[in-house]
Write a structure and sequence with these properties.
seven-stranded mixed beta sheet, 17 strands, 9% strand, 29 helices, alpha+beta
């Protein structure tokens, strides 16, 4: 029993459990902050209700972005486990935090497993596991910006590394067990496919690290290279089934989505790119964040810390007894991860080269203290020196070192990489580091620290030196865990109470209509859940909005008159303004109060009443036809109660034999709430002389319509909303969202694939352990 408790992995698990318990002691019961918790939580809750409403797989929700396809959800399911908190009775908030704490402990143990397999040293693996779980990224992502997609990713990265190592180790073994190859192939495929389903972007951003590590493993040994490549190919094929099939609907629908076509992409990439390697040492972004102009919105995520910086510096420049260590086995692995770290840093400069980014920060950093300018130049010199040193260990030729160093300094690598299709829509180059940077510098740093202690410290004091170094590292990183004890929202309890009071008003008010919310804080995404009313727009997943709907939204920003017309056409019944949001301009409320009356107000929120004519549906005879619709002109027509109608995608030209009607458009009720069935809209019978039915929900080619059991063509009102021509007065029209049959088939095949692959992996793991024990018996 004593020998078991003294094992490094057991000690590590105990320390991580205590660390998680300390973090959770206050954090579990505190209110969420201004990060993305409610973005993930609200979308996960809506997905659950969508599945319940259709009693199966749902592909549409009416609650966000004036209706949106759910094809994208299968590439970003990290928030779905948060619903488990609701199922177990602890709620989404505590459920989210429990999962994050689990990810933290699991990530530390996964890093231990990876480094122990790679180096054979339990001490090195122990340091890597503890440091990885205590890293700045975990603190920032868990309680700072509240991004569960990152914390779940950090758990899986070391498991992917372990899977690659196991694949290569078995391929090179002279007598591998019969169960080795299929088991290793399945393990790697399952872990990477899980990462892809949780967060496809993270899986793509990790490819440079994964590819670099796999390349090194291939050339590390001559034995088993063909077997390694064959096993990798099988893993890739399995990933295509386990993770590729569910994303096929998104591939089909991307052509109809806004993505980032209406955003200032160049400005995004410039702002969310690192400007200096000084961020490695800028603890808490204390120097760069106060500088004028956007340096990097989350620059402190690049922090290496004192311990790793000193250890890497000592081994890289071979001080004293460390001379020659970089050419050892452990030194080679350290060089590998240091090179991958520099690669991620290079990509994170975005559209700028290392040199041009240095010039930019010097030109725009007029508010920086004078002493920091020297450090900026030292940081630049340190990068180039590291590149030269690593290159010299690979090639002794001066020309090669010069070319590589100048390429790193002058070539913006990101501009080349973004030409690859999977990176073409990446608006935050710093995400390369955010995903894999901590993994790489923890691996390199742990190896460097083990070398420094092993060669500089007497054996009798090495254990003590290791504990001291880890204690210093934990203290150094502690600044990033302050959000666990601090609320980023002043008077958070009162803000949430005011928000819930406004939500109760919206729930109880009998007037129809959706809600347009103005706030930079994601808790407004709870409004569909709390009120039963859809949200007009939201910022978290706006890039998935159908592009014709976004075009009408953008046209509504041209003038107050067009804004009012757009709100009316969209069926917006209420506008909610977050009065305490510090990002909203001082006169923001006044602009809207001049347009709409106040319906409800408290200290935190103002609710304005819009009284739209088209909520929840509209019957009209006052229409204009055309092959296409200009959004601005269409809104001008709405102000005159004239509705522009265009054919659906691929539809034929249209006309109304009866001609336009003089009767004023009138609202049509729905025969059932949109919350009953997310994919069905049942509209009340049409009144005489108003044959056109318009529903302010986004048009999609997979919407169908029928009346009296007969199909009707679906048109586009204002270029973006659902419209049909009823066959006669009093006709009750039903819309149904019906995606192609293979949408469901892709999910069912994937689910079957996961059951078979996971079951087979479990059986093979048991068999492999038996095979290992057989020679001993």
């Amino acid at each position: 029993m004593r020998s078991f408790l003294s094992r490094p992995v057991v000690v590590l698990a105990a320390l991580l459990a205590v660390f998680a318990a300390v973090l959770g002691s206050h954090w579990l019961y505190s209110a969420p902050g201004t990060g993305e918790f409610y973005l993930s939580a609200s979308l996960a809750a809506d997905l659950g209700r969508a599945f319940q409403s259709v009693h199966g797989i749902a592909w549409w929700t009416p609650n966000y972005l004036q209706g949106e396809s759910l094809a994208w959800i299968w590439s970003s399911t990290a928030g779905v486990p948060m619903e488990a908190g609701r199922l177990f009775g602890c709620g989404q908030v505590i459920g989210y935090k429990i999962f994050n704490l689990f990810y933290l402990v699991g990530a530390g143990l996964a890093m231990y497993r990876f480094m122990a397999a790679l180096t054979g040293s339990a001490r090195t693996a122990f340091g890597a596991g503890l440091a990885y779980a205590c890293s700045p990224e975990f603190g920032l992502r868990m309680a700072g910006v509240e991004q569960i997609v990152f914390t779940s990713t950090y758990l899986l990265l070391p498991l992917i590394g372990s899977g690659l190592w196991k694949l290569r180790h078995g391929a090179a073994s002279p007598s591998p067990s019969p169960s080795w190859r299929p088991g290793a192939v399945l393990e790697l495929a399952l872990v990477y496919a899980l990462l892809f389903l949780l967060w496809a972007k993270g899986a793509v951003l990790f490819l440079p690290v994964m590819g670099g590590f796999a390349l090194w493993l291939y050339f590390d040994r001559a034995e088993g290279r063909p077997q390694f490549l064959a096993a990798l190919a099988w893993s890739v094929l399995l990933v295509l089934v386990l993770a590729g099939l569910p994303t096929l609907p998104l591939v089909r629908e991307q052509r109809w989505m806004t993505l980032f076509s209406s955003d200032p992409m160049a400005a995004w990439q410039q702002n969310f790119a690192v400007k200096s390697a000084f961020s490695w040492w800028d603890r808490g972004a204390a120097v760069l964040d106060p500088a004028p102009g956007p340096i990097f919105a989350n620059g402190d995520a690049f922090y290496l810390g004192l311990v790793w910086s000193v250890a890497l510096g000592l081994v890289l420049f071979e001080f004293g007894p460390l001379r020659g260590w970089l050419r050892t086995r452990e030194g080679t692995i350290c060089r590998l991860f240091l090179a991958l770290m520099l690669l991620l840093q290079w990509l994170s400069y975005g559209p700028s080269s290392v040199w041009s980014a240095q010039r930019e920060i010097l030109l725009r950093g007029g508010g920086l203290p004078n002493w920091s300018i020297t450090l900026l130049w030292l940081a630049l010199a340190a990068q180039i020196a590291a590149v030269v040193k690593l290159t010299s260990l690979w090639s002794g030729r001066r020309l090669v070192r010069t070319v590589v160093a100048l390429g790193y300094l002058l070539i913006p690598l990101f501009l080349l990489v973004e030409k690859i299709p999977v990176y073409g829509q990446l608006r935050a180059p710093g995400s390369f580091w955010d995903v894999g940077g901590t993994f790489c510098f923890t691996a390199a740093g742990a190896l460097a620290l083990a070398a420094v202690i092993g060669r500089w410290v007497p054996p009798s004091r090495q254990a003590l030196a290791g504990w001291v170094a880890l204690a210093v590292l934990a203290a150094d990183f502690s600044i990033y865990y302050r959000p666990f004890w601090q609320s980023p929202i002043p008077h958070a309890e009162q803000v949430y109470a005011d928000f819930e009071a406004s939500a109760r008003f919206l729930r109880d008010d009998p007037a129809p209509g959706s809600v347009a919310a103005f706030s930079s804080r994601y808790f407004y995404l709870r409004l569909p859940q709390l009120t039963g009313r859809p949200l007009h727009t939201e910022a978290g997943t706006a890039f998935y909005q159908l592009k014709w709907t976004r075009q009408l939204n953008d046209a509504g920003q041209a003038s107050p008159q067009r804004f009012q017309a757009e709100m009316a056409a969209a069926g917006v019944g209420f506008i909610v303004i977050d009065r305490t949001d510090p990002t909203l301009a001082g006169n923001f409320q006044g602009l809207f109060r001049n347009l709409y009356p106040v319906a409800f107000e408290n200290a935190g929120f103002t609710v304005l009443r819009c009284s739209p004519p088209g909520a929840p549906a509209l019957a009209t005879g006052r229409v204009e036809f055309g092959p296409a619709v200009d959004p601005g002109q269409a809104l001008d027509g709405v102000a005159q109660d004239v509705w522009a109608i265009a054919p659906g995608l691929g539809g034929a030209a249209i006309s109304d034999p009866a001609g336009p009607s003089a009767a004023k458009s009138s609202p049509l009720p729905l025969l059932q709430s949109r919350q009953v069935d997310y994919q069905t809209i049942r509209v009340a019978p049409t009144p005489p002389g108003q044959p056109w039915v318009i529903v302010p929900e986004s048009y999609h080619p997979d919407w169908t319509a029928e009346a009296d059991g007969k199909p009707l063509p679906v048109y586009r009102a204002l270029g973006c909303y659902l419209a049909v021509h009823a066959p006669h007065d009093g006709a009750a029209v039903t819309f149904r969202f019906r995606p192609p049959w293979w949408y469901d088939a892709a999910i069912y095949v994937t689910a079957l694939g996961w059951l078979l692959a996971a079951g087979a992996w479990g059986v093979l793991r048991i068999r492999e352990r038996r095979e290992r024990r057989e020679p001993r018996s």
